[in-house]
# Entry
Amino acid sequence: MKKETSKKDYSTILANNLIFYRKAMGLTQFQVAEKLSYSDKNISKWERGEGTPDIFALKILADLYGIS
# Structure
């Protein structure tokens, strides 16, 4: 039987990807925050899995990191 992926699992995956791509680009949370016009506290929250970026921020992040 296939295991159902929970909302928490998706948050963890997203958080880990945000950290991976930010570090791969050599950026700090503060630098990403400046590029998105968000606070570095928001970036930290997303990377801890305590929140998720809205769809507009996700698009900007994808463009910034060169991913789809």
